[in-house]
Write a structure and sequence with these properties.
The complex is a heterodimer. By secondary structure, chain A is of the alpha/beta class. Helices cover about 40% and strands about 25% of the residues of chain A. By secondary structure, chain B is an all-alpha fold. In chain B, about 70% of the residues lie in helices and about 0% in strands. Chain B contains 14 helices and 4 strands. Classes of the chains: A alpha/beta, B mainly alpha.
């Protein structure tokens, strides 16, 4: 069954067509990667799924239901979590608090109950904490649990960002360049985590990534995008050897002759 | 150096991380309760005023320090609290009901203000709230049949279960009453901070875009924070009305709003303790100035504007040298001694982040 369907989605910024008639579906339980040169429209597709942008045409379905009527803060409640390319953590808070914000979806208490901090709220906090501790354990974040984000190095922030999305307890995880700016070892960790997220947690992953090693090692299917148009969809090796993809990345013979 | 072993999740939920600060705060509470037996009535009045300022400061702290919104018109909500409390009392409601209702009405006023302004940020929000502060003064005059207009209102005496808490009749009684209210508000405030609501405030303060991506409804959360902030400030306004006995349209003017903001910035944004430190400065600085003037200058000439000048100077120094406020400075001094000799100068320095996306604003 298809978890996510994009049907003929088009988005324009003024005269610029950022995403041009794009259709693809992500199947339950797979790792689906979007690749393409800068400005191809990969992050724009993410921002449409997160409902930060409205597509001009087309429809986005999650589990068969259109999400275009939903507000962006309703999207995590459906079970779609995301990370940001340029880390968007809550800087003046600890790692633990950042991850706990991800549990907002599972909040079952109202404002008055929380001001009085009824036993029910305390019990709920224990449940949230347990869920978050599972994520901390999974991503090896134990040493940083009580550290403030503002004092953490880039690589750790990147992991916290992924942890916060996992704390939501999603069905679909959108990873926007999870390995950008990371060292080779850190990228390898990310690859292992994505494997486990897929196999152990059973979460479907939609990923934007430039690191082709990572894409090849974890993806089931890859979609190549250039100038908002789909070049091809297929297995990692199929996509990498596709003539249009090579052309988009390195240019064709004729263009070389011109420069 | 103290090492704390956490053995349950409650260790991070409790009010105090371990026994040592808990004992210090207990000592502080006992001192506060015993205060009327130690000092004379003039100073007790000053301490009562400090507690009222601290409540107002906590109200604004919730908004500015914890949910990252600016308000330069918070005195307007003090006025809403003061007037609705007295009007309700005049209708025959006992103080024990009129005070929470005054808070409720101030919160309601906060919701009405928040709804159109939730889309505003930073300087625009500040301008809008200044406008509300200015409007409130005129509204009080326009609504003269209820508010008494320029001639003002006289606060009736407080009576709870037959005990009288008059400003001049029962000074220590009023002090204890306000101390009790302050403690309740502090507890409620702490509860907010450790619950999902407090975390959603923190989320919208630090990054609205990712708060949304985590499922926080921005407009709703901002409205709630405004409402709670205004309710607390309204309660302090109601108490201020009783403390000053008489108040007019000019009592809760824009200068009060600015003092409130000064208070929490000097005390330390984002700390409940900061509201109290700021309140102490706002309350005691005028006394300190007048006493030191008498001590140092024999002619005791009155220098106009010295208070505002001092406040301004302190604010500039705090912003330049200690953005975390006086409470932040205290935290640094404390950790210096706790970690001695391992304290590093840049321990509290923030890591610079160069990648902050603005593309989706």
């Amino acid at each position: 069954m298809n978890l996510l369907d994009l049907q003929n989605v088009t988005l324009r910024f003024g005269g610029l067509v950022a995403v041009d008639n794009v259709s693809f579906s992500v199947k339950q339980g797979e790792v689906f990667s979007l690749v393409g040169p800068n400005g191809a429209g990969k992050s724009t597709i993410f921002n449409m799924i997160s409902r930060f942008y409205d597509p001009a045409e087309g429809d986005i379905l999650f589990q068969g239901q259109s999400i275009l009527k939903k507000a962006s803060h309703d999207i995590p409640h459906l079970g779609i979590a995301r990370t940001f390319q340029n880390i968007e953590l809550f800087e003046q808070a600890s790692v633990l608090q950042n991850l706990l914000v991800g549990r907002q979806r599972h909040r079952r208490s109202n404002v008055l109950e929380e001001i009085l901090f009824l036993p029910k709220v305390r019990k709920q906090e224990h449940h949230h904490r347990l869920a978050v501790e599972h994520v901390i354990d999974f991503l090896d974040l134990q040493p940083y649990r009580d550290k403030f984000i503002s004092g953490l190095p880039y690589g750790i922030r990147k992991v916290v960002e992924m942890g916060r999305a996992l704390a939501i307890g999603p069905k679909l995880l959108l990873l926007d360049e999870p390995a950008s700016g990371l060292s080779t070892e850190e990228t390898q960790d990310v690859a292992f985590w994505i494997e486990d997220i897929k196999k152990v947690m059973g979460i479907t992953v939609l990923m934007v990534e430039h690191d082709m090693h990572l894409v090849n090692s974890v993806s089931d299917r890859v979609l190549a995008l250039a100038d908002g148009k789909i070049l091809t969809i297929g297995t990692p090796s199929e996509v990498q050897n596709h003539p249009d993809v090579i052309k988009a990345y390195i240019g064709s013979d004729e263009e070389d002759a011109l420069t | 150096m103290r090492i704390i072993f956490k053995t349950s999740y409650d260790a991070d939920i409790r009010y105090f991380s371990n026994r040592v600060p808990a004992l210090w705060y207990l000592a502080l509470l006992l001192m506060s309760i015993a205060l009327p037996f130690i000092i004379n009535e003039f100073w007790l009045g000053e301490f009562t005023l400090m507690l009222i300022w601290a409540i107002a400061g906590m109200g604004l702290m919730l908004l500015v320090g914890h949910s990252g919104q600016a308000s330069l018109g918070h005195a307007a909500f003090m006025a809403v609290g003061a007037y609705s409390n007295v009007i309700l009392q005049e209708y025959g409601l006992p103080f024990i009901l009129s005070l929470p209702l005054a808070g409720f009405f101030a919160g309601l006023a906060g919701v009405l203000v928040a709804m159109p302004t939730t889309k505003l940020h930073g300087i625009y929000m500040a301008i809008a709230t200044i406008a509300i502060g200015v409007l409130a003064e005129d509204l009080i005059v326009i609504l003269a049949p209820w508010t008494g207009g320029v001639s003002g209102k006289f606060a009736p005496s407080i009576e709870i279960f037959g005990i009288n808490f008059d400003r001049y009749g029962n000074v220590s009684g009023l002090y204890w009453l306000i101390l009790g209210i302050t403690c309740l508000i502090v507890l409620g405030y702490k509860n907010i901070l450790r619950s999902p609501l407090g975390r959603s405030f923190m989320a919208i303060r630090d990054s609205e875009i990712s708060a949304q991506a985590m499922g926080v409804n921005i407009a709703r959360t901002r409205t709630i924070s405004f409402a709670l902030s205004c309710a607390i400030t309204g309660i302090s306004g109601a108490l201020m009305g009783h403390f000053s006995l008489v108040f007019t349209n000019e009592t809760f003017n824009i200068v009060i709003s600015i003092y409130l903001l000064l208070m929490i910035v000097i005390g330390g944004l984002g700390f409940i303790q900061g509201a109290f430190i700021g309140a102490a400065i706002v309350t005691f600085l005028p006394s300190v100035i007048s006493f030191s003037r008498d001590a140092f200058f024999s002619n005791s000439a009155i220098i106009p504007g010295i208070e505002s000048g001092m406040f301004g100077a302190i604010l500039i120094f705090v912003i330049l040298f200690e953005p975390m406020g006086l409470y932040g400075r205290w935290l640094k001094i404390r950790s210096y001694f706790e970690l001695f000799p391992f304290y590093r100068r840049d321990m509290f320095r923030r890591q610079k982040s160069y990648l902050k996306t603005e593309r989706m604003r």
